[in-house]
Amino acid sequence: MAKYRKYITKGILEPIHKVPFHDKAPIKRTLMLGKNQKTQSKIHLAVHEVNSRGKKIAPYTELHRHNVDEIDLIISETGKLVYEIQLGDESYKIRAPCTIYIPKGLPHKANVLSGKGTFVCIIMAKKYKTF
Ligand SMILES: [Zn+2]
């Protein structure tokens, strides 16, 4: 009766400032799939629940890159979640719903500017390098 239980992974609350290149921010971060969890999945997946409560959020992510591809989903029920995304030397102000594909090696950062919603970060390996 429990032969597929191993495919269900409990999320782990992990403060965003514990992630390399990230500072404190009013974001609830849950690691859904990662190297600290028992999973056969080959990806890293984290969810950020964002609520600016009408205030401006100071930038909290530094420019960084990975040795594997990353995909970010920016989702909002209200459609009012706004992020500033930097890819290489270019910066974009983007609004939910949006998918950002970040090829391995491309310097990037993502900072919420305003609104309420969800940021899903998928990194295409369970163990990867950030630099
Ligand atoms: Zn990244």
Features:
131 residues, mainly beta, Jelly Rolls, six-stranded antiparallel sheet, 0% helix, 42% strand, globular, binds zinc ion
Briefly say what this structure is.
With 131 residues, this protein is mainly beta.
Care to describe what's here?
The protein is mainly β and 131 residues long. The chain has a single domain, classed as Sandwich (Jelly Rolls). 0% of the residues lie in helices and 42% in strands. It has a six-stranded antiparallel sheet, with no helix packed on it. Strands 6-5-8 form a three-stranded antiparallel sheet, with no helix packed on it. The chain is globular. The mean pLDDT is 94. The structure holds zinc ion (ZN). Zinc ion is lined by residues 64, 66, 70, 108.
What structural class is derived from the secondary structure elements?
mainly beta
Low-confidence stretches: none
The residue fraction in helices comes out at under 10%
Q: How many DSSP helices?
A: 0
Distance between the termini: 43 Å
| Shape-level CATH architecture | Sandwich
Beta-strand content bin = 35-45%
Whole-number total of structural domains = 1
CATH superfamily: Jelly Rolls
> What is the number of beta strands?
9
Average pLDDT works out at 94
Strand order of the largest sheet: 1-2-3-9-4-7
* CATH fold category name: Jelly Rolls
Radius of gyration, in Å, reads 15 Å
Shape: globular
* Hetero ligands: zinc ion
Task: List the secondary-structure elements in sequence, H or E.
Answer: EEEEEEEEE
Task: Please summarize the sheet with the most strands.
Answer: 6 strands, antiparallel
- What's the CATH class label? Mainly Beta
